[in-house]
């Protein structure tokens, strides 16, 4: 009997072809990322910083910096610094707190200063949530022994240090379901944090430049999964994205001055840092 293709057959074939093409692209991107030759620097035992400019990741060019902190060795040195009603550059806050490494933290009020989402530092509430947002659905919480990334406010309520931001990117090594919107789907500079076994991962991806185009949050989640992380959350990005390393200064390329240099820092309300 002669087979006669139907409209349903052709539709199914198109879906299958698209799925296979997307899977192939993801596999290629995974290979590109996992085989990248990083410029690596050991800052001290259990603390490393590495950088790479990857020319064909998700069909784009990306400048990525990663700091990896062994929490068994340095967990007690992890801190938040926060301004309740003002703003300052990440590098200035980092230097004033004698940080060896630092990244910008959560979302903030660009006019009046202070975080727009809940933040607590050393048992002191610095800012409460101004307007609840579906974007801010994840907490970074830590004390001298534990570091968590969680969506459960009751689980982390007793921790002395809490930063609300988001959205959540990974939970138990699975990518979070992200709503379709411009913030999530468009490519921007990104700052994010993740847990990988006994290590804390601080990451920046630069953007808004031909030398680094930035990532969507789905692409960022995939990078964390390929890097072997279990839990991950997004932080404030865009012009705020900044990574500081002592004796190096700002090591990424902040975009607020629209130049691909180290001078385009935006003043922020809070940072995550490691005491030197």
Automatic annotation (TrEMBL):
Domain Phosphodiester glycosidase residues, every copy: 97-274
GO molecular function: hydrolase activity, acting on glycosyl bonds
Key words, A-Z: Glycosidase, Hydrolase, Signal
Signal peptide: 1-25
Record flagged with keyword Hydrolase: yes
Record keyword Hydrolase present: yes
Pfam families per the UniProt record, alphabetical: NAGPA
UniProt name for this protein: Phosphodiester glycosidase family protein
Native species: Sphingobacterium tabacisoli
């Amino acid at each position: 009997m002669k087979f006669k293709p139907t409209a349903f057959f052709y539709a199914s074939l198109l879906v299958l072809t698209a799925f296979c093409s997307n899977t192939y692209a993801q596999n290629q991107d995974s290979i590109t990322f996992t085989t990248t030759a990083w410029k690596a620097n050991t800052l001290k035992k259990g603390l490393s910083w590495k950088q790479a400019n990857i020319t064909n990741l998700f069909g784009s060019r990306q400048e990525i910096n990663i700091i990896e902190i062994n929490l068994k060795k340095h967990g007690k040195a992890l801190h938040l610094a926060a301004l309740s009603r003002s703003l300052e550059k990440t590098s200035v806050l980092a230097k004033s707190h004698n940080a060896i490494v630092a990244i910008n933290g959560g979302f903030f009020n660009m006019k009046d200063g202070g975080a727009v989402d809940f933040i607590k530092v050393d048992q002191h509430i610095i800012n409460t949530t101004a307007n609840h947002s579906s974007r801010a659905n994840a907490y970074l919480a830590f004390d001298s022994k534990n570091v968590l990334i969680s969506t459960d406010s009751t689980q982390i309520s007793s921790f002395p240090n809490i930063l609300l931001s988001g959205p959540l990117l990974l939970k138990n090594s699975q990518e979070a379901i992200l709503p379709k919107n411009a913030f999530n789907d468009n490519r921007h500079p990104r700052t994010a944090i993740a847990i990988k076994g006994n290590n804390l991962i601080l990451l920046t991806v630069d953007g808004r430049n031909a030398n680094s185009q930035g990532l969507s949050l789905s692409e960022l989640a995939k990078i964390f999964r390929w890097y072997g992380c279990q839990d991950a959350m997004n932080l404030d990005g865009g012009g705020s994205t900044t990574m500081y390393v002592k004796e190096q200064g700002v090591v990424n390329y902040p975009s607020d001055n629209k130049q691909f240099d180290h001078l385009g820092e935006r003043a922020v309300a809070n940072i995550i840092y490691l005491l030197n």
